[in-house]
Amino acid sequence: MKKILVIHGPNLNLLGSREKKIYGQTTLAAINAELAAVAKKNKAAIEFFQSNIEGEIVSQIQASRQKFDYLILNPGAYTHYSIAIRDAISGVKAKVVEVHLSNIHARESFRRESVLAPVCLGQIVGFGKDSYRLALEYLLAR
User: Fold this and answer.
1) Which of 1, 6, 26, 110 would bridge 129 by S-S if both were Cys, CB 3.0 to 4.6 A apart?
2) Does 87 carry a binding-site annotation?
3) Is 71 part of any known ligand binding site?
């Protein structure tokens, strides 16, 4: 059975009420419920974690070392500068897919570079809530 951890970074707890033109109207709870249903259908174990705090995300990645095969990570703004999260990803055996609801490459210049992408299995961006589902479906098919 594949074991997958989904980590949601800063401000994602406000989905559905924040900047709807960029991030959509779907709540984080709804995204998690959809992912849980897909995982169950495919006989995979899935857990969820959300934090606005960089150190908690680092600790969660480190704690995943022996428990999860894959991580789906939406690091939010930490995408662009968190060497600590990058180092945590490099230090675990789990393969990580970076996801973003918006197309970070089509937004402000400071959002276009991910310091995490080079240590991730891949990156899925710009498909709204479906970015998460696409990442999960990819991992389930591996």
Assistant:
1) 26
2) yes
3) no
How many domains are there within the chain? 1
Q: Which of 23, 70, 78, 132 is catalytic?
A: 23
CB 31 within 8 A of CB 132: yes
Q: Quote the tokens at residue 135.
A: 């990442």
DSSP string, 35-87: HHHHHHHTT-EEEEEE-S-HHHHHHHHHHTTTT-SEEEEE-GGGGGT-HHHHH
Task: Name the residue range of residue 129's domain.
Answer: 3-141
DSSP 119: G
CATH code of the domain in which 96 resides: 3.40.50.9100
pLDDT tens, residue order, the chain (142 aa): 999 999 999 999 998 887 667 667 789 999 999 999 999 999 999 999 999 999 999 999 999 988 999 999 999 999 999 999 999 999 998 899 999 998 887 777 766 688 999 999 999 999 999 999 999 999 999 8
